[in-house]
Description:
Elements: H1 5-16, H2 20-31, H3 39-47
Amino acid sequence: MYESEITKFIKDLKAQKPHLEEEQRKGRAIWWDKKPLDVKERESQDAAKVPQKPYPYATK
């Protein structure tokens, strides 16, 4: 069965570093898998926003 060079590379990498997938899961948990904000905190953040000009580099 055909295996691309990328597939072979990933298999070799996982064989050399078996802890790699666990590190990826930890990194994902830090940056992406976050709990949703509660309603009161979301309202507070929305109220604190400052409206931005349509074109910030305009001088007038």
